[in-house]
Specification:
Layout (H helix, E strand, L loop, with lengths): L1 E2 L5 H10 L4 H12 L14 H10 E2 L4 E7 L5 E6 L5 E9 L4 E5 L3 E3 L8 H5 L1 E4 L2 H15 L5 E4 L9 H13 L8 E5 L3 H10 L4 E5 L5 H7 L8 H15 L3 E7 L7 H11 L4 E7 L13 H13 L3 E4 L20
Parallel strand pairs: 1-2, 6-9, 9-10, 10-11, 11-12, 12-13, 13-14
Antiparallel strand pairs: 3-4, 4-5, 5-6, 7-8
Helix pairs in contact: 1-2, 5-6, 7-9, 10-11
The chain binds S-adenosyl-L-homocysteine and iron/sulfur cluster.
The site of iron/sulfur cluster (SF4) has 11 residues, from helix 4.
C-alpha cells in the first residue's frame, strides 16, 4: 500500500499517470491532502467514484493513528501519535496571538540520545529517528483532527532535530512547498550539535535556529547537558556567529530558568557578556517541573530581574508563556510514553 501523505506533487503525478489518469487528478489529490486535510479517500469528492475505488486499492492517506488526545483549558492540544511499528511521539498544537497563529510543536525522533538532566524526553533514551513522512504527518494529524490550517512549526517536541538532519531538511522542504508554510515560520531548536550547525549554515535556510543554551558558561552548562563535554559552549558560539554571517538570520537563544542554579545576577551578567556580539533574541523559559529531577522553577521576581538585566544589555527578551500546563504539554514534558 502506498501512503499518500508525504508525497510531493511530482510523486502524485507519477501515481496518477500509472493509473491512466491526468496530472490534474494529482493536483486535486494534493489539495485534499495538504490544504483540506481529509482523512478518507472517499472525502475527495471531485474525483469520480470509480477513480476513488481504484485509488483505494492502491493507497491509503496515512498509516498512523491518534492514540490519545488531551485538550488544555488554554486551547493547547496534545496528541500521542502512533506509527505503524507501534512507536509513539507527542505533538502539540498551541494557539498564540488571539488564535490567528496555530503553532505545531513537532518531534523529530522517538526519544533522544542527548540526555539533558532536566528533560523528560532525555530520560527515555534514544529509540529511533523519524522519517520525513512521519514528521510532516504530525502536522497533517493536527489539521485533519481540527479542520484548521497550521501556520507555524517549531521543532521543539521530542528529539534532537540536528541528529536527524536529512529527514528534518526534507520535512522543511515539504512544509514550504506542499503546506505553504514559509521558512520564516519554522524554527529548529538544537542542543548545540556544532558540526551540524555549520552544515545547516551552508543550506542558507530562512528558518530560525534556536539554541538551547541554558547556562552562560561551560561548567554550569555541563551540569545540565552532558553534550557540553562534546561540544564546548565556546565552539557553539563560533558556530552561531558563522550561522549568522552565512544566513543573515537572527538566532533565538533559549534559556531555561532554574531556581538558584542559573538565574542569579551573576549568571545574567555573564550571559549578557557572552551574547554581546551575537545577533540574537533571548527566550527565557521558566523551568517546567519534571519528575525525578532536583530542579525548581525560578520565582517570578528572579525571572523579571534576569529579564531586566539582559534587556539592559540591549537584547530583546521574551518570557515563554506556559501552554498546556494542565495536560503536561509544556516544553520538556513530552516523553511520549503511552500508558
Ligand atoms: N532537542 C532540542 C529540541 C527539543 S527540546 C533542544 O533541546 O533544543 C525543546 C526545548 O524544550 C529546548 O529548549 C529544551 O531545552 C526545553 N526543555 C526541555 N526540558 C524542559 C523543562 N523541563 N522545562 C523547560 N524547558 C525544557
Ligand atoms: Fe534531547 Fe532536547 Fe531533551 Fe536535551 S532538551 S534531552 S536535546 S529533547
Amino acid at each position: 500500500m502506498i501512503t499518500l501523505s508525504g508525497l510531493k506533487l511530482s510523486e502524485l503525478e507519477n501515481l496518477t499517470e500509472e493509473m491512466g489518469a491526468s496530472k490534474f487528478r494529482a493536483k486535486q489529490i494534493h489539495n485534499w491532502i495538504y490544504a483540506k486535510s481529509v482523512s478518507n479517500i472517499d472525502e475527495m469528492t471531485n474525483l469520480s467514484k470509480d477513480f476513488r475505488d481504484d485509488l483505494k486499492q492502491k493507497a491509503v492517506i496515512t498509516d498512523t493513528r491518534i492514540k490519545t488526545k488531551q485538550v488544555s483549558s488554554d486551547g493547547t492540544i496534545k496528541y500521542l501519535i502512533e506509527y505503524s511499528d507501534g512507536e509513539c511521539v507527542e505533538t502539540v498544537l498551541m494557539r498564540f496571538d488571539n488564535r490567528a497563529n496555530l503553532t505545531a510543536c513537532v518531534s523529530s525522533q522517538v526519544g533522544c540520545a542527548v540526555n539533558c538532566s532536566f528533560c523528560a524526553t532525555g530520560k527515555r533514551g534514544f529509540i529511533r529517528n523519524l522519517s520525513y513522512q512521519e514528521i510532516i504527518e504530525q502536522v497533517l494529524t493536527i489539521q485533519r483532527d481540527t479542520g484548521l490550517k497550521v501556520t507555524n512549526v517549531v521543532f521543539m517536541g521530542q528529539g534532537e532535530p540536528l541528529l536527524n538532519l536529512d529527514n528534518v531538511l526534507k520535512a522543511l522542504e515539504i512544509f514550504n512547498d506542499d503546506f505553504q508554510i514559509g521558512a520564516r515560520r519554522i524554527t529548529l531548536s538544537t542542543s548545540g550539535i556544532v558540526p551540524k550547525i555549520y552544515e545547516l549554515a551552508e543550506q542558507e535556510l530562512q528558518s530560525t535556529l534556536a539554541i538551547s543554551l541554558h547556562a552562560p558558561n561551560h561548567d554550569l552548562r555541563a551540569k545540565l547537558m552532558p553534550i557540553e563535554n562534546k561540544y564546548h559552549i565556546d565552539d557553539i558560539k563560533k558556530a552561531l556567529l558563522n550561522y549568522v554571517e552565512k544566513t543573515g538570520r537572527r538566532i533565538t537563544v533559549e534559556y531555561i530558568l532554574i531556581h538558584n542554579f542559573n538565574d542569579t545576577v551573576e549568571s545574567a551578567k555573564e550571559l549578557a557578556y557572552l551574547l554581546k556580539d551575537l545577533k540574537c533574541n533571548v527566550n527565557l523559559i521558566p523551568y517546567n517541573n519534571v519528575n525525578d529531577t532536583k530542579y525548581q522553577k525560578s520565582t517570578n521576581d528572579d525571572i523579571m530581574r534576569f529579564k531586566y538585566l539582559l534587556e539592559h544589555s540591549g537584547k530583546k527578551v521574551t518570557v515563554r508563556l506556559e501552554r498546556g500546563a494542565d495536560i503536561d504539554a509544556a516544553c520538556g514534558q513530552l516523553a511520549g510514553k503511552s500508558n
